[in-house]
Design goal:
The chain is built from 13 helices and 23 strands. α1 links the parallel β1 and β2. The chain is an alpha/beta fold. The radius of gyration is 26 Å and the shape is elongated. It has two domains: about 170 residues, Flavin prenyltransferase-like (Rossmann fold, 3-Layer(aba) Sandwich), CATH 3.40.50; about 210 residues, Rossmann fold (3-Layer(aba) Sandwich).
Length: about 400
């Protein structure tokens, strides 16, 4: 995902510096070329050899170290960098960068980098909220630095408050958001539905289906990574929603219908990937639940058809993509849905195809439009999500 990308990690003096070893490892696993800069204070918390072993590059600390690869190391690295992450960012280094001070290898290199720079403050709660530190952070933000908010929890001195460095996966996700993909969806508003709706029968039981929500979540994350402003209407999912998207939690088909249709007009693309129950109990009141010979009989009514409603009210220039899970006549049934519901594309798959069922991490999709069908091979749902977005951009 990060093959061909150069990431510079700037590590300052904080107990949280230990987390950056795992960040370096995760980035390398994603294919990035990782370089680490450290302040002298940071070396008191973690040995530079740790980073050198993980990255296969010399860890840069001393501006005047003569054992380096390039003739002017900080300038060469600054030119090569696709992104810089300053984490953990101490109050001292935040203040120096905000004030234009470059008195060591880390601050000198950061000052010379024209690429995007992210800052993840990590320090004592009271220090973080010192007006001077807050002003320096705002100053960096005004210069285009991305600020990663500190987490709240127990700090190194035992206090409870904000000031913790976020978990490694969060830091990596911020980097991926910035550089993993071309921002070809920037300026677009995309609404995605995901998960399985649940129709309550009584306070204990409900009607649902086997959808894990993985495909919808993958669609939302892929669109976000490519620069779109994403709204995710999320029913029950087995995976967490991605960062950096607006999440609207719903439970029933009626709640999803309301959430989607009330937001539809402002969207450029709507992708309905949720598995919505076709029927819901006519009422959850006890008087409507009929028991006979030990069996429960429930009056059912059809839920509103979200995709059909979207197609009927589709505004000019808007794209609507639906998903069709079939067991037989996959193409014919899906093409009929495309026409009947006035969609621009239907992503069809079959429960009978290995690797394409509910709950899997892979999918086998046929993208159906008015102009024909494109069959995708077995691939991860993340890869399939990008293929679907690629196709939608051609419509």
């Amino acid at each position: 995902m990060l093959k061909g990308k150069t990431v510079v990690l700037a590590v300052t003096g904080s107990i949280a510096a230990y987390k950056m070893a795992n960040v370096a490892r995760m980035l390398k696993k994603l294919g990035a070329d990782v370089h680490v800069l450290m302040t002298q204070n940071a070396t008191q918390f973690i040995n530079p050899i740790t980073f050198e072993t993980l990255t296969q590059h010399k860890c840069l600390i001393d501006t005047f170290d003569r054992n380096f690869q390039y003739s002017v190391e900080h300038v060469a690295l600054a030119k090569a960098a696709d992104i810089v992450l300053i984490a953990p960012a101490s109050a001292n280094v935040i203040g120096k960068i905000a004030g234009g001070i470059a008195d060591d290898m880390l601050t000198t290199t950061v000052m010379a980098c024209p690429c995007k720079k992210l800052v993840a403050p990590a320090m004592n709660h009271n220090m973080l909220h010192n007006p001077i530190v807050e002003d320096n952070i705002r100053k960096l933000a005004s210069y285009g630095y991305g600020i990663i908010n500190a987490d709240t929890g127990m700090l190194a001195n035992g206090d409870i408050g904000d000031g913790r460095l976020p978990e490694e996966s969060v830091l990596v996700e911020h980097i991926l958001k910035e550089i993993a993909f071309e921002k070809d969806l920037e300026g677009k508003k995309i609404l995605v539905t995901a998960g399985a709706t649940r129709e309550p029968i009584d306070p204990v039981r409900f009607i649902t289906n086997h959808s894990s929500g993985k495909m919808g979540i993958a669609m939302a994350r892929a669109a976000m990574m490519r620069g779109a402003q994403v709204t995710l209407v999320c029913a029950h999912c087995e995976v967490k929603p991605p960062m950096f998207v607006e999440v609207v939690d719903v439970q029933t088909a009626a709640e999803m219908f309301e959430a989607v249709t009330s937001r539809a007009d402002g969207q450029d693309i709507i992708i309905k990937a949720a598995a919505v129950a076709d029927y819901t109990p006519a009422s959850t009141a006890d008087s409507k639940l009929k028991k006979s010979d030990g069996d429960m009989k429930i009056d059912l009514v059809r839920t509103k058809d979200i995709l059909k409603a979207l197609g009927e009210d589709k505004r000019e220039g808007q794209l609507i993509c639906g998903f069709s899970m079939e067991t037989d006549n996959v193409i014919d049934n899906s093409r009929a849905k495309l026409e009947k519901k006035n969609c621009d594309m239907i992503c069809a798959n079959s429960l009978r195809t290995q690797g394409a069922g509910f709950g899997t991490d892979t999918n086998v999709i046929t993208m159906i439009t008015k102009d024909g069908c494109d069959e995708l091979e077995l691939m991860s749902k993340e890869e399939a999500a990008h293929k679907i977005l690629d196709k939608l951009l051609t419509l």
